[in-house]
Design brief:
Aspartate Aminotransferase, domain 1, seven-stranded mixed β-sheet, 401 residues, 12 helices, globular, 16 strands, alpha/beta, 2 domains, Aspartate Aminotransferase, domain 2
Length: 401
């Protein structure tokens, strides 16, 4: 078995394979000097909207911009509460705060790591009340209105959207999907009796094209998707200083535009995304088979019957994550942790007054999860070595304890 290093993520090979197409994008932009907006951005927006099976896509500077603008465009404002989960990258809650709202949390499903709809229902039933005149949901402890929910499609797999949307419809809450890790993921809706793409089930959705994503730019980039024309138009205004046309500002906005060159790169890569996602699924299936019989040592990802994950990450749980990660690093196998601390326990959110034990499932996951190498092109031989080293390390740790 080879002892060569196995990276956690390989971004070099894919760009080498697409080099000619990517250089052509750059050459076109240099010849036209079309660096902001224009046909490259519009072309990508049209292609990505079609890919997500929605009417509109608005290209933006980052996934954080996409979520922030989507929240603002759906009516979230200063003083509101927006519900999400504590096991996500801080950009999710930053976007909520930057929209003027306060993030609050519900715990996750222990198998999928996504928002637990039952916990969402409990939050709304027990921590909130309805304004008898307006019907608006009011948080009991703070008196603030609860206006939106942000389910996070984590690690490439969608949350249980039918149930979440049903609950939110009952309480008249907006649903903004954080689909930053889920380009191409699908959900089978019993209500619609068909598969839906990530980004097509909420009032709006946010995507990140950070380089390491399944569809990654060669820099920063993001997009918002929606079926609501007015919402899309508001996001277009927000991304460009509120301009309806040059120097005519309908609202006060931001600088959140998608660069034309990045849009061109993304459009090239989008043609390959379905193939790359299928490779990731096959890679995950191989991992699953290689880990068969190791249930007592490692917990592998769970994919419900209603989900088609695109495996942005392959995340396992083990008892002694620190020792395993060290031993894998010692033999040249790259790993990562997504994420090592639940957001309600970070210093940034001390002011919320939340404590250890408030969200025990998310906290437990944060202490035990480990992301193994996952990228298109990861070979079966490399996977066999990864799994062999994982089981070797865990067996050693188990025998010592």
């Amino acid at each position: 078995m080879s002892t060569d290093k196995i990276p956690f993520l390989d971004l070099v090979t894919v760009h080498r394979e697409l080099q000619d197409e990517l250089v052509e994008v750059l050459t076109t932009a240099l010849k036209s000097a079309g660096f902001i907006g224009g046909p490259m951005v519009q072309g990508f927006e049209e292609d990505f909207a079609r890919f997500c099976e929605v009417r509109f896509c608005v290209g933006l500077g980052s996934g954080t911009d996409a979520l922030r603008f989507a929240l603002m465009a759906t009516g979230v404002k200063s003083g509101d509460i927006v519900i999400t989960v504590p096991n996500t990258f801080i950009a999710t809650t930053e976007a909520i705060s930057q929209a003027g709202a306060q993030p609050d949390f519900v715990d996750i499903d222990p198998r999928t790591y996504a928002m637990d709809p039952g916990k969402l229902r409990q939050y709304l039933e027990h921590k909130c009340r309805r304004n008898t005149k307006t019907g608006q949901v009011i948080h009991n402890a703070t008196g603030k209105p609860v206006t939106a929910v942000v389910p996070v499609h984590l690690y490439g797999q969608m949350a249980d959207m039918d149930t979440i949307v049903e609950i939110c419809d009952h309480y008249n809450l907006k649903v903004i999907e954080d689909a930053c890790q889920a380009q191409g993921a699908e959900y089978f809706s019993g209500k619609g009796n068909r598969w839906y793409k990530a980004g097509s089930m909420g009032h709006a959705a946010a995507f990140s094209f950070y380089p390491g994503k399944n569809l990654g730019a060669c820099g920063e980039a993001g997009a918002m998707t929606t079926n609501d024309e007015q919402l899309a138009q508001t996001c277009r205004l927000l991304r460009d200083h509120g301009q309806s046309k040059k120097y005519f500002h309908d609202i006060e906005g931001y600088n959140g535009r998608l660069d034309a060159i990045q849009a061109g790169f993304l459009r090239v890569k989008l043609h390959h995304l379905a193939r790359w996602n299928e490779q990731r699924r096959q890679t995950a299936e191989r991992y699953d088979k290689l880990f068969a019989g190791a249930e007592g040592l490692v917990t592998i990802p769970h994919q419900p019957s209603w989900a088609r994950s695109v495996y942005h990450l392959y995340v396992v749980q083990v008892e002694d994550r620190t020792q395993l990660q060290k031993q894998l690093n010692d033999v040249g196998i790259g790993t990562a942790i997504h994420y090592p601390i639940a957001l309600h326990l970070t210093k940034a959110y001390e002011g919320l007054g939340l404590q250890i034990g408030d969200f025990p499932i998310a906290e437990k996951a944060a202490a035990h999860i480990l992301s193994l190498p996952m990228f298109p092109g990861l070979t079966s031989d490399q996977q066999e070595r990864v799994v062999a080293e994982v089981l070797k390390a865990l067996s050693t740790t188990s025998s010592v304890s």
